[in-house]
Amino acid sequence: MLALQQDTPNQPAVLREIPTPEPGPGQVLVRLRAAALNHRDVWIQKGQYGGLKLPCTLGSDGSGEVGALGADVTGWAVGDEVIIYPGVEWGDDERAQGRSFRVLGMPDPGTFAEFITVPVSYLRPRPAHLSWEQAAALPLAGLTAYRAAFGRARVQAGERVLVTGIGGGVAQVAAQLCAARGAEVWVSSGDETKLARALALPLGARGGINYNSENWGRALQAQAGGAFDVVIDSAGGDAFGALLDVAAPGGRIVFYGATLGAIPQLVLQRVFWKQLSLLGSTMGSPVDFDAMLALVNEQQLVPVVDRVFLLAEGDAALRYLASGQQLGKVVLSMLRT
Ligand SMILES: NC(=O)c1ccc[n+]([C@@H]2O[C@H](COP(=O)([O-])OP(=O)(O)OC[C@H]3O[C@@H](n4cnc5c(N)ncnc54)[C@H](OP(=O)(O)O)[C@@H]3O)[C@@H](O)[C@H]2O)c1
Description:
Helix content is 28%, strand content 27%. The protein has 337 residues and is an alpha/beta fold. The chain has 2 domains: 168 residues, Medium-chain alcohol dehydrogenases, catalytic domain (Quinone Oxidoreductase, Chain A, domain 1, Alpha-Beta Complex); 128 residues, NAD(P)-binding Rossmann-like Domain (Rossmann fold).
């Protein structure tokens, strides 16, 4: 089978022919139809991800058909259409993942390949309203967004929610999920064109602002009619201070990423005086995954696919994601032509 592998950091990912894996007991072979990129794949390619073990087939998100069943596997049949839980070994504590938890794709072989074997318990039916590419775009982004918004920040109907960096894959699903649950969703982006395009998409966002504009926090609160009960962010860095300003007294700021790195100076008085909660969130458990899928199916939500590349163009897809031009998910199709 063909697989896109990263051999060493800061080098192009390489497409190569490798043996097709065989499903062991309790495992299923999935013939992948599409896989989606996440920013994690870019961090790995740049050598900026903890615990690097290369070479490895990258990729955490996949949709496809069951190709073969390992010994003792019941409940699924060859040809069933599936998506894959994008984590490995969450553990039995819903509050946090266990020590052996890892994201699918490095060190375990990932989804940028024609086939993958996974434990049968990680399969879920493909949402029937989604194409292969849309279904592949959902797992990691949807899971991360769901846990951050509902597991951690406990977003409620009627609350005012700011989702920063709406160009991002997770951010877009977060906006969709929060709007679907009846929250008033507002967004930001560093790019005017992206912002305008995002506001035209059916994400449920009521308005937004360019976070590079002067006094954006005050202007956005004026638009929204007040401060934000919840802020969902993955940038951190020196952009974080402004989030403390736009959060309402008693508000929650939840972050699942640190694209801009560490927060240079966190003035704790601003946190405790406003009774703010700062919440970290990572991925999610299989329970979170099921809850996310239930909401997506019930509301017929569709993740935004920005661009589809062929597997053979995988390195170009990684560089496109790294360039930050995307609005939504970048997806690989396993079609050979
Ligand atoms: N902990 C977890 O489980 C987990 C899961 C998924 C992702 N992450 C992390 O979360 C981050 C986003 O992941 P992703 O896959 O959604 O990435 P992505 O699709 O590549 O999007 C990254 C987004 O970050 C936004 N951004 C850049 N500078 C910003 C700023 N100053 N303020 C606000 N937003 C800013 C950009 O939004 P605009 O283009 O609109 O400005 C950009 O689209 C990455 O750091 C990733 O590693 C963590």
